[in-house]
Amino acid sequence: MVVEEIVIVGGGIAGVATALALRRVGKKSLVLERWRELRETGSALTLSHNAWCALDALGVGHKLKPHYRLLRTGTVTNLATGATQTQSFPNEDDNGREEMGSRSVHRTALLEAMAEELPPDSIRFCSKLVSIRTEVLPDSSTIMVLHLDDGAIIKAKAVIGCDGVHSVVAQWLGLASPRDSGRSAVRGLAVYPEGHNFRPGLQQFLLNGVRAGFVPINDKDVYWFVTHPTTPKVREMGRDPELIRRATLEHLIVDLPAEFKVFAQQSEPSSLSWNQFLYRLPWDVLFGQLQRGCVTVAGDAFHPTTPDLGQGACVALEDTVVLARCLAHANSPKDMEQGMARYAAERRWRATWLIIASYISGFVQQGSDGRWTSASVKLFRDLFFYRFVFPWIIGIARYDCGKLPEV
């Protein structure tokens, strides 16, 4: 049986980006994707400065930037009081380059921009990992044995788990399961074949523990979301697009601006998604085992977090560049193990901080449970958070992962 040098579990954004980053430093890898084709849950995402730095390092940033608008401003309207606050998004980096600013992009466009840079045989489809074990070879070296749900077995010298919040690789490492935040979101992409008249920028609305928003991606597509407390009623819609649409129209957006009804009606079923907000406890990331031997994790398998800073995919892209840089000169199992250990040590603190910042951001923006605490949180949010705290958090989130080395 052929032993693969590096196997990447998961063909989402983190997995494909990891394969591309490794290819850029001369490392061949095999991606195991559970579905029949590359697919991304959800319709769009916002990529901030740190994501564009990573995409430039991967050599694909230039393929996406011309097609998407810079996010310059946003508004947050409290529907209970009618008060509106204005947000500004920093668009220039430390070198004055405006093209590094935030943009909302189609998830599939991002995935395809990276995947088309890989050789055709880089991804093995219909390959769902179910378990991992180690095997000692006659020369005393250790390899990983991956068991797939179709009975196939793949052996690998190194494994990188990019298999999402319910990662099999993370479980093998001993990382604790993600926690449920008690909140969820419906997301969709409203399509206007004749064009829409929405002004550029992110518009958000707050009401009774619900936060909704939308942002035009281009002249015809509008990305929208509704975040809300998870209740038994909304759990019933599961992953069925039509149930999601019906529950959204009948329960989630009744008191929101009329645009959201149109968004729900104008969205293609394939763009509609409902997801619970899961996150890994920060101390599990800070003190947990992120690497063992030649096995580690990246993206949501490493640091699942609530999406309240819009940093999930951005930090996953950072992971891939840092990991490839740490493995660029790994020419032996010992080198590989040491490189993964450096990667885990470098990423541990940043991932922990972003989990905490995202959770607090969501807690403040949507209010808390309890009457007096909710009133206090909302007062802080309306008077201070959007003016002073949120811009400070966004500023700290800016990060340049650096370039990949020449090998």
What would your notes on this structure say?
The chain is of the alpha/beta class and 407 residues long. It is 36% helix and 25% strand. The chain has helices spanning 13-24, 49-58, 61-64, 107-115, 168-173, 232-235, 241-252, 259-266, 282-287, 312-327, 333-366, 371-397; strands at residues 3-9, 30-32, 44-47, 73-78, 84-88, 103-106, 123-124, 129-136, 142-148, 153-161, 179-191, 202-207, 210-216, 221-229, 273-279, 291-292, 295-297. Helix 11 (333-366) crosses helix 12 (371-397). The chain is globular. It starts with a strand and ends in a 10-residue tail after the last helix. This is FAD-binding domain-containing protein. It comes from Dendrobium nobile (Orchid). Belongs to the 3-hydroxybenzoate 6-hydroxylase family.
Overall pLDDT metric: 92
Strand count: 17
* Derived structural class: alpha/beta
Low-confidence stretches: none
List its salient traits.
alpha/beta, 8-stranded mixed β-sheet, about 400 residues
Short note summarizing the structure:
The protein has 12 helices and 17 strands. By secondary structure, the protein is an alpha/beta fold.
Q: What secondary-structure arrangement, pairings included, does this model have?
A:
Layout: E1 3-9, H1 13-24, E2 30-32, E3 44-47, H2 49-58, H3 61-64, E4 73-78, E5 84-88, E6 103-106, H4 107-115, E7 123-124, E8 129-136, E9 142-148, E10 153-161, H5 168-173, E11 179-191, E12 202-207, E13 210-216, E14 221-229, H6 232-235, H7 241-252, H8 259-266, E15 273-279, H9 282-287, E16 291-292, E17 295-297, H10 312-327, H11 333-366, H12 371-397
Parallel strand pairs: 1-2, 1-10, 2-7, 4-12, 10-17
Antiparallel strand pairs: 3-6, 4-5, 8-9, 9-10, 11-14, 11-15, 12-13, 13-14, 16-17
Helix pairs in contact: 1-4, 1-10, 2-10, 10-11, 11-12
